[in-house]
Every structure is written in structure tokens, then in C-alpha cells.
Specification:
The complex is a heterodimer of chains A (110) and B (114). Chain A has 110 residues and is an all-beta fold. Chain A contains no helices and eleven strands. In chain A, strand 6 and strand 7 form a beta hairpin. In chain A, 32% of the residues are buried. Chain B has 114 residues and is mostly beta strands. Chain B is globular, with a radius of gyration of 13 Å. In chain B, a hairpin with a 2-residue loop joins strand 7 and strand 8. Classes of the chains: A mainly beta (110), B mainly beta (114). The interface between A and B is medium-sized, with 20 and 22 residues.
């Protein structure tokens, strides 16, 4: 069965304290891996897409990396406005069915 | 660009009632997706349409759930009859076939079935 897991479930950081979030997947025929950010009461907001092992994408304080079995979302010198739930998702086969992980709830304290 | 529009934003109903959720995708997008999000199960794909045609409804939990897309700018998700376990946040998302890696989500409808 295709599965996506994320760790940790929740993470509290001090402002400026860098860390990484993990997304592990067991799927047949990965087409793409996606990172989304979700703020309370809102829909997920697209951040990155990664397609092949070794690929990296960056946006401001965030950098996403991909290996054959997992992806990391690195957060460098986070700010309180980075507090949100970060969701990982994969697409397989036809590329239309998104399978989402449970998310990591990040809190950045000032 | 107004983004994906969903209505209502909140719905409270009683068990057994019919519920209709509405979605207006971004203009020009030819894919539309309906998701359900709960604490227990996370975000789950229910059904998706391409050019107004349902392509995969394998995520629809039961026959009580139905979805339609009568035209490119409107879709509905209907639950009849509703049950307390249907309580969740329902999201609509759309994307363009020219940008397969990006889905745009609406703000969601929070459904509470008493």
C-alpha cells in the first residue's frame, strides 16, 4: 500500500534555530514529491515539487531535498511567521492521485 | 485572480440532512479535485475531474457521496443523508494541465454534522 509518513508530528523552535522536517514514502512508481504549507483555517499552499533523487529546491528560508526513500524540508533561521503545518504529498502512476502525509506542525517562538 | 472559491465556509447540519458544498475553480484550470481533511485521516482525495468529466472517484467513501461538474466553472459535492462521521473540512483544488506540479486549494468548507 502506498504510504507517506512525516516526522516529527510537532516541532517547536526558537527564532533562528534551524532544523529539518522529514517525509518518508513507500510507493510504487513515484512521479513527484510535493511540499505544502497550511495555515490554520486555510487550504494548503504549494511550496515545492521534486521529481528525482538528488534534486533540491529553495525558497527564502526553506530548502527541500529528495532521496530515493525520503525528503527533507530544511528551515534555516526560522521566523515566527514560518509557523504552520507542513504537508508532504506524492503522486504515482498517472500522476493525478495525490497521497498526503499527516503533516508536521511547526511552531517558531520569538 | 480570485483563486479557488468555496461555499459555504461553514456548515452545521443535523444527521440525515442533505448537504451541498460548492466550488468555483480558477478560470482556465481543467482539473478539479475534492479533498476531505480530518485529524484522524489527514487529507484524502475523494474525486477528481478533467474537463468536467469525473476521472477517478475511488476515494469517495460511500454512495451517500456524489460529485458533479456541470461546467468548467462550477462543481458540487453532495452528501445525502449526512452522518456525524462526515464532519470534516472539505477542500476543493484546481490546476492546469500545463502546470501538472501545482494545485491551488480553496479555503475549505468546515462541515459539522450533529
Amino acid at each position: 500500500e502506498d504510504q507517506v509518513t512525516q516526522s516529527p508530528e510537532a516541532l517547536r523552535l526558537q527564532e533562528g534555530e534551524s532544523s529539518s522536517l522529514n517525509c518518508s514514502y513507500t510507493v510504487s512508481g513515484l512521479r513527484g514529491l510535493f511540499w505544502y504549507r497550511q495555515d490554520p483555517g486555510k487550504g494548503p499552499e504549494f511550496l515545492f515539487t521534486l521529481y528525482s533523487a538528488g534534486e533540491e529546491k529553495e525558497k527564502e528560508r526553506l530548502k527541500a531535498t529528495l532521496t530515493k526513500k525520503e525528503s527533507f524540508l530544511h528551515i534555516t533561521a526560522p521566523k515566527p511567521e514560518d509557523s504552520a503545518t507542513y504537508l508532504c504529498a506524492v503522486t504515482i502512476r498517472s500522476g493525478q492521485n495525490f497521497v498526503f502525509g499527516p503533516g508536521t506542525r511547526l511552531s517558531v517562538l520569538p | 485572480d480570485a483563486g479557488v472559491i468555496q461555499s459555504p465556509r461553514h456548515e452545521v447540519t443535523e444527521m440525515g440532512q442533505e448537504v451541498t458544498l460548492r466550488c468555483k475553480p480558477i478560470s482556465g484550470h481543467d482539473y478539479l479535485f475534492w479533498y476531505r481533511q480530518t485529524m484522524m485521516r489527514g487529507l484524502e482525495l475523494l474525486i477528481y475531474f478533467n474537463n468536467n468529466v469525473p476521472i477517478d472517484d475511488s476515494g469517495m467513501p460511500e454512495d451517500r457521496f456524489s460529485a458533479k461538474m456541470p461546467n468548467a466553472s462550477f462543481s458540487t459535492l453532495k452528501i445525502q443523508p449526512s452522518e456525524p462521521r462526515d464532519s470534516a473540512v472539505y477542500f476543493c483544488a484546481s490546476r492546469s494541465s500545463g502546470r501538472p506540479d501545482t494545485q491551488y486549494f480553496g479555503p475549505g468548507t468546515r462541515l459539522t454534522v450533529l
